[in-house]
User: Which sequence fits this backbone?
């Protein structure tokens, strides 16, 4: 478990550096890239891996500001490649001020040489207690990875409490228009209906702790 946590932490830091290069994270961020919890939230199943992490941005308008990330990766394209969903939900006291998502495909030659990459901008949906992104899996063989991100704020009155957000990746078993998929949100809960594979995990951290 410790080895897996360190591996994911390195990936999280690499993601953070990429976001800085793209101008999506300010250079003066006061916090550090933080694996979401002393009990790391992640899930592995075959070629799939998902995990969560946070970025602490500091205090804005008397509230703690964070970015919640639900990250996923397929080490190779799944056999069924329809429209998947990635979602997360948070606590009642947490408010999202911005939602975004990213999906990339890195493809290779038959000899293993990297040929290039494709960057997609997934559709997103927002709710009071959560958000969702649709991942239309590309047909290329290769590494498929991405994330769902919400910038959120939490009142300072919750300092020292355990912050939590739950993550779900839903791998569709049929095309979008016939899979009968639906999703609902509540505080720290995601309700999923439909014949799909669901990969769940929970992410925890201490509110107000400046890592």
Assistant:
């Amino acid at each position: 478990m410790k080895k897996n946590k360190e591996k994911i932490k390195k990936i999280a830091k690499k993601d953070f550096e990429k976001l800085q290069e793209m101008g999506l994270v300010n250079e003066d961020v006061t916090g550090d890239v933080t694996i979401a919890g002393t009990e790391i939230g992640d899930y592995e199943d075959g070629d799939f891996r998902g995990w969560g992490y946070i970025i602490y941005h500091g205090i804005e308008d008397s509230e703690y500001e964070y970015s919640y990330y639900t990250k996923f990766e397929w080490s190779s394209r799944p056999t069924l490649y329809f429209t998947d969903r990635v979602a997360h939900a948070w606590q009642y006291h947490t408010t999202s001020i911005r939602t975004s998502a990213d999906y990339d495909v890195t493809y290779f030659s038959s000899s293993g040489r990297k040929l290039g990459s494709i960057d997609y901008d997934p559709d997103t949906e927002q709710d009071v207690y959560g958000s969702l992104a649709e991942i239309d899996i590309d047909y290329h063989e290769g590494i498929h990875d991405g994330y769902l991100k919400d910038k959120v704020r939490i009142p300072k009155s919750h300092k020292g409490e355990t912050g939590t957000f739950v993550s779900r990746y839903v791998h569709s078993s049929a095309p979008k228009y016939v899979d009968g998929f639906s999703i609902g949100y509540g505080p720290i809960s995601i309700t999923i209906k439909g014949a799909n594979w669901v990969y769940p995990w929970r992410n925890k951290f201490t509110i107000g702790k400046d890592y």
Observations:
- Residues 2-21 form the longest helix (20 residues).
- The helical segments are 2-21.
- DSSP finds one helix and 14 strands in the chain.
- Residues 22-33, 35-39 have pLDDT under 50 and may be disordered.
